[in-house]
Amino acid sequence: MVSNQRLRLFILCFCLVNTAFIAATEDENNERKPYIVYMGEATENSHVEAAENHHNLLLTVIGDESKAREVKMYSYGKNINGFVARLFPHEAEKLSREEGVVSVFKNTQRQLHTTRSWDFLGLVESKYKRSVAIESNIIVGVLDTGIDVDSPSFNDKGVGPPPAKWKGKCVTGNNFTRCNNKVLGAKYFRLQQEGLPDGEGDSAADYDGHGTHTSSTIAGVSVSSASLFGIANGTARGGVPSARIAAYKVCWDSGCTDMDMLAAFDEAISDGVDIISISIGGASLPFFEDPIAIGAFHAMKRGILTMCSAGNNGPGLFTVSNLAPWVMTVAANSLDRKFETVVKLGNGLTASGISLNGFNPRKKMYPLTSGSLASNLSAGGYGEPSTCEPGTLGEDKVMGKVVYCEAGREEGGNGGQGQDHVVRSLKGAGVIVQLLEPTDMATSTLIAGSYVFFEDGTKITEYINSTKNPQAVIFKTKTTKMLAPSISSFSARGPQRISPNILKPDISAPGLNILAAYSKLASVTGYPDDNRRTLFSIMSGTSMACPHAAAAAAYVKSFHPDWSPAAIKSALMTTATPMRIKGNEAELSYGSGQINPRRAIHPGLVYDITEDAYLRFLCKEGYNSTSIGLLIGNNKNNTTTKKEYKCENFKRGLGSDGLNYPSMHKQVTSTDTKVSEVFYRTVRNVGYGPSTYVARVWAPKGLRVEVVPKVMSFERPGEKKNFKVVIDGVWDETMKGIVSASVEWDDSRGHVVRSPILLFRSDNDYR
């Protein structure tokens, strides 16, 4: 009996020890991952002291001095308090419970939201008012893929020395040897160095072209005869050509990491930038776990407005990213031009496709075949030759011919191995690709190429199968006129799920087929074996819209250097040009409308938002007092803080949204049949002299929108007035999921201050 008990005890002990050993082994075998430990506002302590505090905090969790120093990767400490460390999940969870920690979240990869545009917006060169002296004092920080300082768009001839407020540096390195008076500084952030080609991880050089493109859209000097191989020929320039650029490289081949972006924000704020432009995004997260929301909040506290791209996951609803109310979220709209690449068949029929084809045909006609007919029967294995998948075609059947590829998984020439790359590798003369869905975005091709609509592709197939000697020719891309603006198909749409009663995107700007500067280190198509280089390129995405809005913000700031970020944002939103898109998208696709920079410098009234107002909004949204206190610097190491922040000691934001936002938005449940909302607003007079504004309301049948009071009179600039908007009605079946209305304040002297109103009901059709 005794021996049996000892045996059971031995087995139990062995199992416990073995289980603990296995758990420990699994933990060690699982690779440590980078986590960001966010601790709110940095104190006045030195960066060295902050780093030591971070180490001590890490030591309490890890328990080993050398291991704690080994796993810590980076300390933020100039404006943002926090650090990056390689942690196991259980260590991250334990750190999140430590005093002074706001949040701990895993470092993730985010992606880039990837000429004529300023004329289209009314800023015709030499014909619009500018405040050049102040404009040249404005510095725009661009968080992107780096920059090519040697581009003619960044020529600093005649540009004065850096503004006295500039505190940044020019960090040189491989393929990046200098800055100048136009590109004042450049830094790069790559906290995790693995996985880069030799030499590409040690400088702010732009190997992608994206950062050069966005930077020149903001502040590029005027360059005549700019084009992509003759396409879209004209003068390229930025919206504020006298402003300066500070480049912060945070994006690499693998993407843009949270920890790198947060480090760049921390530096840019201290460097003295006035505006931050960041055309990057990812999954929507709570604000204290979103590096862009965190960085932008600390920038806002220093008077810096952050402009963000809305994302390229449209046209579906609930796809918009960069949702914090203190950032400006920008959708992409079209210009009044499009690019057509015409295909002509041997029987005389033509099809108008879309691409950026810079190749002029050398013959009147070329032999034409299809992927199906060019199939390499001896190849075996997997793949679909009809769609021209890699490895499915025979060189003897492709060489010297134009190849027609049916709609398949690999549409588009940029990124992976598209059909143009497959056909070029087999010495083909050109490629015609059938599109599954219509697109408005033109992409560069490696050889002569055109993407045609599905119906036109079907006709091409019929022609190929109807003759023994099919022929075709692909002409060089030409520019034609089109009605505009319209929202680009790829542009992400609202509503949002993080703060459901804040309308996002805020505004739209040109982002479709934009010509701007390009890096000499990047290939035209992105293919490594594309040896063509160009000074300018045409790109599409909300990435291209964001710098347009950033330039517009800088333009407004050049006339009103003392305005807050919220005031500049308000001016751009309330003067935007309303768009005529209704139905299932409406303001969910464009917010307040297309930016109108010339009107924005004289908005008449602005909706301002203070830091305290944002904090009250966060309280209303359910964020706890401790985290909010850390956000503003209330921690035990900050001796200048007099008392702890507590939500219950402050009046929370009023009304349906709880914030003095320039737009008005409410999401209601699918079971709601009645509408009853109220929005409280405060406006400040930024006009000249006495003025009287009268409210004008537009609302659909069945919805009552009342403004109280209906008239506001101002005696002097800077005077503030309060009003409320009361909405009542019944949700009619014809309204479906979206109801649009608007309020305009008109002073009869040229100032019309417009706020869109959007109600959204999440019916089954919108889930």
TrEMBL record:
One of its GO terms (molecular function) is serine-type endopeptidase activity. It is found in: Secreted. Residues 35-113 form the Inhibitor I9 domain. Residues 659-758 form the Subtilisin-like protease fibronectin type-III domain. Keywords: Glycoprotein, Hydrolase, Protease, Serine protease, Signal. The keyword Signal applies. CDD domains: PA_subtilisin_like, Peptidases_S8_3. One of its GO terms (biological process) is proteolysis. Residues 136-593 form the Peptidase S8/S53 domain. The active site is at 144 (charge relay system), 210 (charge relay system), 543 (charge relay system). Belongs to the peptidase S8 family. This is Subtilase family protein. It comes from Arabidopsis lyrata subsp. lyrata (Lyre-leaved rock-cress).
